[in-house]
Batch of 2 targets.
Target 1
Amino acid sequence: MKNISSFLKKRMDLPSLQEIFYILRNISQKEKIVFFAFFIVFVSSAIILLYQINNKISVIVPDRGGTLEEGILGTPRFINPLLAISDADRDMTTLVYSGLMRPDNKGGLMLDLAEKYEISEDGLEYTFILKSDLVWHDKEPITSDDIIFTIQQAKDPILKSPKRASWEGVAIEKIDSRTVKFILEKPYAPFLENTILGILPKHIWENAFSELMSFSELNINPVGSGPFQISSVNKDSSGIIKSYTLTANKKFALGQPYIKKLILKFYPSQEKLMEAYKKGEVNSISAVTPQILEETKRKDSNIKIFSLPRVFGVFFNQNNSEVFTQKEVREALNFATDKKKIVEEMLKGFGAEIDSPIPPGVFGAIEKQEDEFSFEKAKEILAKNGWKLNENDGILEKKIKTNTLKLEFSISTSNVPELKQVAEILKSTWESIGARVDIKIFEIGDLNQNIIRPRKYDALLFGEVIGRDPDPFVFWHSSQRNDPGLNIALYANITADKLLEKARTISDEEERRKIYQQFQDEIEKDRPAVFLYSPYFIYLIPELIKGVNELESMTTSSERFSQIHKWYIETNKIWKIFVKTEN
């Protein structure tokens, strides 16, 4: 038995390198060629086999590294979630700060600093628990004291924060170092939207009293807990900020971003921004208008489209123009509006036609009605209700008792190329059915202060920002008809009022959706406005940036950065078993 084992061991031993050389020296040239040929085939086959196996069990995953340079219109002054007023302010604030919640760019919200939250059965109490081991960019711990401090500052009338209205009537209570409770005076279903507010570090800001906060250097050199932190700032000789360099926050609550560095460059005008992009000074820009898209985009550009919860329409002021008190006029103008033409000509297809006060893609929106545009239908409605053409001036008119009412009115709008173009399209189409339309153009400040606030317009071509979780109350409840209310159609409907009041108090999404459907039915019956379109947000970003999904939704342009921690430039190849899956 021992001899057999010894024999097998000898037979199974591989030849040594010395033995291989001895064999090669003692075989013929022909045998050597055959040997090396087989050896090359064996090695090549082994490499190919290993390569194929590696491909089958490997995947490409994002890796950390790379730099994104973006051009932004304007210069930031308040990189502060309580004071931000410009797009440049909000862009920087979104990158530097985190809230309890964060927009998910899919029409909803996701947890950010918060680990979880609970809502009481009566909808009056919202309890949030912070994730453990959260830190600011300066490595100091984040606690519930920071949350309380931020909300107290937001509510302070001395500060005059744009966020103040969102927090009126909301009390905040500290449970422990990681837990806070918000207490509402009455149920408000969209309250969670408030919690995307960026949180300020108390240990840095507590000595900057409310009346001094807007003058603090911290507004341009902020410390937050967002996905990126400020590394350096570049100013010109006048002290005006030209650019910021930001680096990835390794301790970001949702994980360290893949992109290592962001360089944001600021430009004083749209022309300067476009010029910089064309020259390659920056490789991404946002808020590109459809009219200049073709001439602006570069070969290395990717066009990313985001839907915005905005409603553009013509709002009728029945108090200022008697012609709009006639329901058939409002109805006829709806039928005589070629929304498809507006979207195709003015927006170049980068927008959606709408028929209601809640835009598509937003919770509670109704589906677009088909085949509504009809000159014939519009003329028929007017003729049926006594409107006849005056042969002398070519304008429809209607006798009401002893008075003659003419179908003439003005459209007031802002001095913005897109809105002026829309106004011209409306004038052309509405005059085709026998109306006379005068277009009045105002600078935005003049329009807001002297036209909208005192409600001095016949019809107003304007836009409304609805929000992710809509609350049409401020735009359509009768209590909001006068300034500072936003009911620019001066709409008054008892049924609609009750529906809007009820919807605010209901947390159940399906029930609230049904109420909004009923509300929109009331609007459709009354026709207080002609709803035109909801524009898309156009973002030009280089092809090398991955992870930016298309046709997602957001409320403001700065929310394009809400999921920037998932964007990446560099990639790596690893075996599938080592890939981490998201919960």
Target 2
Amino acid sequence: MGFFGSRSTVVDDLRAGVTLGVESIPDGLASGLLAGVNPAYGLYAYMVGTFAGALTTSSVFMAVQATGAMSVIVADVPVLHAGSLASTALFTLSVLTGVVMLALGLLRLGTLVRFVPNAVLTGFVNAVAINIVLGQLSNLTGYSSDLGNRVTRSIDTLLHPLQWSWASVAVGVATVALILLLERTPVGALGLVVAVVATSAVAALLGVDGVTTLDDIADVPSTLPHLSLPDLGLVGELIVPALSLALVGLVQGAGISNSIPNPDGRYPDASGDFRGQGVANIAAGLLQGMPVGGSMSATAIATSSGARSRLANVVAGVVMALLILLVGPTLGHIAMPALAALLMLIGVRTFKLENVLNVWRTGATQATTMAVTFVLTLLIPLQYAVLVGVGLSILLYVFAQSSKVTLVSWEVDDAGRLVEEEVPTELPPHEVVVLQPYGSLFFAAAPVLESQLPRVTPESGGSVVVLRLRGKQELGSTFIAVVRRYAAELEAVGSRLHLAGVSEGVLRQLDATGTTAALGTDAVFPATRVVHESLDLAVAAARRHVEGTAHDA
């Protein structure tokens, strides 16, 4: 099969592309509305992102469009919503987001997404779902609150029902009801389009007062976008939201990479998808679009409509362009409460209570990470909430791992089997004590491990502690300092420390820090292909030392 499929797949791709393209018109306008920018910029982003992404992502089916989470982040960036540079700042943000994504892709850092814990993503995505619903209450009710954040504005709105436009509420409720009805018919995904158009048309024909339309808040385009160059002077102000947008977009895109295989049965390359989304963002920014990322919902629409190759998304982009040219002026008659209802329904469906409960039951660390991310996402600008959530998860991970390191003593029973026993509190005299650490030995865990080592007393002379390090490819400087301190304590009473199973990487660290010389080259036993060979050599040398000191005593 070629880049755009084959002759046998063309019809399926055309059908899927037309479906996605038509559905993306109200969805693109709604994304711009959700982001608090000119809805045209959401529409342009959908058109350009879908087309550019189709040509550049590793994933054949990924639809690169503005996602709900990314739109809410855009809504929280003040410079994008005031002043003469607001539009330029938005386009610059798209380009900057694309540059970050493209750079990560070129560096083949697709594995970075694994550093965003599921707890952070769950808390963030579900809080975004609530933010989407709360953010559209004003468009649904016609009541505008001037309080601080979405939560307080929403509470204020709910407390003033007498000032609502009940005609707007009726249009919104009718839109949701019609969507739910049409989805159960052969109309399927296009029910979103039909419902928004139908309720907007009825409101216009009846001349209902108090129902705001797109024309009332922005100029809806009837032409294709023109070139808009970024303002490099805004980079410093936009770098944090760009990083947050890149992170969210790439993580959401990774959900597509990891779940939808290409037609050949292979899963896409995550770094290749990074690059494709980066190119799509740069293109969107240069052509008056807001930031975009891999959209699971749009990809699902295309695949469920029969997409067989990249041609489906190319067709979707072309269909959007044609519709803008042909029916652009008509789009201005779309009722704002109809779009608001569409977004609120998307928000409700985005909230996954089952995922929240699963993370909550996993453990205190995961639950805390999710809860903090969730609350911050509701209360502070999203570009900071994402970074704080990731930072918190890293700190909690370090804390959890440092407390999980354990030390056991290995002994050989009468049958010649290795048996794990508790580590003696004090190091006995003239004995060989073999210690096996479990867990990470990075800097935060080193003091925890040190506290578990047998205490060296004046009566601990003539013994050897054998510390088995097999499987450790690198040691932190903190742990090496612990090794040197403990070796010095042992030496002070005539005992020794042997290191067994030392990898090449650890051996280089020990040599470079002078630790090998401090312990003695005969106290460091490199790992071999035979699992216990290094340990056996260390123990044999330890027994010779113990026998020698016992004889001298």
